[in-house]
Design goal:
By secondary structure, the chain is α/β, with parallel strands linked by helices. It folds into two domains: 66 residues, Beta Barrel (Ribosomal Protein L25, Chain P); 174 residues, Alpha/beta knot. 34% of the residues lie in helices and 24% in strands. It contains eight helices and eleven strands. The strands form two sheets. The chain has a six-stranded parallel sheet with strand order 8-7-6-10-9-11. The radius of gyration is 20 Å and the shape is elongated.
């Protein structure tokens, strides 16, 4: 845990914060924070800063909080993700939160087992806890939005365009494609949407429907990756390409 996340309900009328549960236990048993020491803290969906330890007793952590700094910049990336195996999803959600993804739509697909939608991993509290773990790791405070859609075609045809702005670049990693990511993602705008299929990939109908809605297919190369590996790899590569685009545009204006 690289950042103690604070919630609105943690704050007392005097502006200090009182934490209990997992966070207080971590501060006492792992960080071994003593009164007078400073811990990295951040308010959910707000600023980051320092928390001076006033009290650290079993089950209670009391902090004097000073929040002055913004969290890391956003990646400008959203995900349309065929819902993976529950064990994989438990790895993917903290990863996307760590990487600064703003919105994740978990959608059904032909190669998705219907039982996945009954998994406890999709419970709202379970999802939030996984995302918070990712934020703590990355010293971030902005919680990604996670939506679940059980019908692929109605989502793509009726809802996709309202969730993802038309100005966003839509990218489709798809094994039959031949052009590399750098070609499909040349000169990226501020917002990018990645449509990542299940293990085994999107079926032809799904890929064609996504392409008809503006998604550009590209190849990941000769290696076939599991979803829990492909997601952070792709988000990282797109983030670097976005930085390259921004850098080139900045240089051209000077």
């Amino acid at each position: 845990m690289n950042l103690l996340l604070l919630f609105d309900e943690d704050f007392l009328p005097d502006g200090t914060a009182r934490l209990t549960g997992r966070r207080a236990q971590h501060a006492r048993e792992v960080l071994r924070a003593e009164p007078g020491e400073s811990l990295r803290v951040g308010r959910l969906d707000g600023l980051t800063g320092a928390g001076e330890v006033l009290e650290n007793t079993p089950g209670v952590l009391h902090l004097r909080v000073t929040l002055t700094d913004p969290p890391p910049p956003r990646a400008g990336i959203d995900l349309l993700l065929a819902i993976p195996r529950p064990k994989a999803l438990k790895k993917v959600l903290p990863a996307v939160a760590s990487l600064g993804v703003d919105r994740v739509v978990l959608v059904n697909a032909a190669r998705v087992e219907k039982s996945y939608f009954d998994s406890k991993v999709l419970d709202a509290d379970f999802v939030k806890d996984l995302l918070l773990q990712g934020l703590e790791q990355a010293r971030d405070t902005h919680l990604p939005e996670v939506l679940v859609r059980e019908r692929f075609r109605p989502f793509v045809e009726d809802e996709l365009d309202s969730l993802f702005p038309p100005t966003a670049r839509r990218l489709l990693p798809h094994p039959p494609a031949t052009q590399p990511l750098r070609t499909a993602a040349a000169d990226l705008p501020e917002r990018v949407v990645l449509a990542i299929g299940p293990d085994g990939g999107w079926v032809s109908f799904e890929a064609q429907l996504l392409e008809s809605h503006g998604f550009r297919p590209f190849s990941l190369g000769p290696r076939i990756l599991r979803v829990e590996t492909a997601v952070p790899v792709l988000v990282g590569q797109v983030a670097l390409l976005k930085e390259d685009t921004a850098s080139r545009h900045g240089a051209s204006r000077t």
